[in-house]
Amino acid sequence: MTPAWHRLEAYASSPGKRHFLHGLALLDRTSYYAILVAMGVMTTLVSAQVFARYVLGTSIDSADELSRLFFVWAIFLAIPHGIKVGIHVGIDALVTHFPEALQRGLARLMAWIGAAMMAALFWISLGAVADKWQELMPTLPITAAVFYIAVLACAGHSCLHLIAQALGLEPLPSAPDRRGGTPS
């Protein structure tokens, strides 16, 4: 089993890149657990709402809104994990016929363009959060901006992964292994 620090050194040659990858792996791990919590809370809320409605003959006022909120957060927190491993939609019918070096160059260029677009989305999301901050959710005394904060977090996290791809940095493992411990 390789210690975490040695895995970092194998992926990046400079201290700045090592720290960037280490911080990104920590962000990934935090996001991973936040997704698990969001999915668990959403499932519990929907189950409790179904039980309350069909067994007890009553309803939980905020269950629909809260379950929707946790669903939105789970989805937007998961998007950067897909970008990290390249499981996003892409059409590569033409690009696969190019030489390997050109394919790598185009992939890096597209990563830079994607990072720029995510940075723009981050900036726009900041404005949306500020704009919606005073508005409250209909059934809860919580700002409606929490939906837009999920987009903000997704854009920032995705931008970091796209920068790592553009720099040619391999991502560090961030999900726990099957035994529940840290990745080796």
TrEMBL record:
**Which InterPro entries would you find in this protein's record?**
DctQ (IPR055348), TRAP_DctQ (IPR007387)
Occurrences of domain Tripartite ATP-independent periplasmic transporters DctQ component (ranges): 42-167
- The keyword Transmembrane helix belongs to this UniProt entry's keyword annotation: yes
Q: Which membrane topology describes this protein?
A: Multi-pass membrane protein
Annotated keywords: Cell inner membrane, Cell membrane, Membrane, Transmembrane, Transmembrane helix, Transport
Function, in words: Part of the tripartite ATP-independent periplasmic (TRAP) transport system.
Query: What are its GO biological-process terms?
Result: C4-dicarboxylate transport
The record's section on Pfam families has: DctQ
Tell me which domain of life the UniProt entry assigns to the organism this sequence originates from: Bacteria
According to its UniProt entry, this protein's organism is Bisbaumannia pacifica
> In its keyword annotation, does this UniProt entry include Transport?
yes
Q: How does it assemble?
A: The complex comprises the extracytoplasmic solute receptor protein and the two transmembrane proteins.
Q: Its family?
A: Belongs to the TRAP transporter small permease family.
Compartments, record wording: Cell inner membrane
Q: Any stretches that span the bilayer, and where are they? A: 32-56, 68-89, 109-130, 142-164
Protein name per Swiss-Prot or TrEMBL: TRAP transporter small permease protein
